[in-house]
Amino acid sequence: MKSKISTKRFFPNALTILNMFLGFLSIIFIMKGKYFDAGLFILLAGLMDIFDGKIARSLGISSKFGVEFDSLADVVSFCVAPSLLVYNLYCENINYIVGAIFSFIPLIAGTVRLAKYNLDTDEDNPKSYFIGLSTPISTVTILSFMYFSIYVGGPSNYGDSSIGIILVCILGLLMLSPIHFPKVPLITFKSSVSNSMLLMILIVCTASLIIWKGFALFPICLGYIISNVLFWVFKIRPSNIQLKKRT
Question: Which CATH superfamily hosts domain 2-233?
Answer without folding.
Answer: CDP-alcohol phosphotransferase transmembrane (TM) domain (1.20.120.1760)
